[in-house]
Amino acid sequence: MPYGFFYLLFLIFPIIQGFRISLCKWDIFGNKVFLGIENYTNLLYDPEFWSSLWHTVYFILLTTPPLIILGLVLAMVLNIPFRGRIIFRAIFFFPYLLCISVVAITWMWLYAPYFGLINVYLQKYGLPVPSWLGDARFAMPAIAITTIWWTVGFNIVLFLAGLQEIPEELYEAAKIDGASFTQSFFHITVPLLRRTTSLVLMLQIIASFKIFGQVYIMTKGGPYGTTQVLVQYIYDTGFRYFRMGYASSMAYILFSIMLIASLFQFRLLRKK
After folding, report:
1. Which helix (H) or strand (E) holds 25?
2. Which end of the chain has less neighbouring CB within 10 Å, N or C?
3. b/e per residue, 178-197, with b = 16+ CB within 10 A?
4. What global pTM score does this model have?
5. Alpha helices, DSSP H, located in 79-138
């Protein structure tokens, strides 16, 4: 029997088992009680589920456009031949190698209300000093800035790989024809980076839907639940309140959303 069958079985079996749990009431320690789709119907009337989903979508809107635009701009700069560009590439990629706990704790010190480096400089120049992680208006943008600093290096690498696949002769021919930098960018760079951009967009959305570590370490969902994302709500429901069936149903809703988003992007890319 081919090894591919066992590999497929290895992937499908946990999915089936998890779906069975989502149809039951189970607190880990007792027996499972079959409920059918009751867990899924209860989600429709759970305001905390919808607020957590919205916070996740809000985080995606805050991080995805900057990560794509900033990653492309920095990749174009780092693709220009100049002395020391390899060092600069390493500097921009280095934060991506750090674990989330190191990144989150470092930025918590930077965001500290009274002695944090950011507020020290704001106060030095007479600017307002907000409570970055304690104010509902600034908490999620602060987490988004931390995430952008942490992960933009990965997008830079992907865009650099895409830029180096574009023949230099195309730019030289466009320059001879009198094309400006802006025209070359929109008529050569952007079209030929379409597949790379689609890949970056897909990976970014999937990763953003799974956000957990930054929020859990930096705010624990606060203040007043304004940064509680869906994965944190799933974690708390399953491992703090031991409602494993209900948590599993939310996990499958999240999986379905990511799957639909990925299939939509693949379909859009195929059409183009």
Report:
1. strand 24-25
2. N
3. ebeeeebeeebbeeebeebb
4. 0.90
5. 85-93, 100-110, 117-124
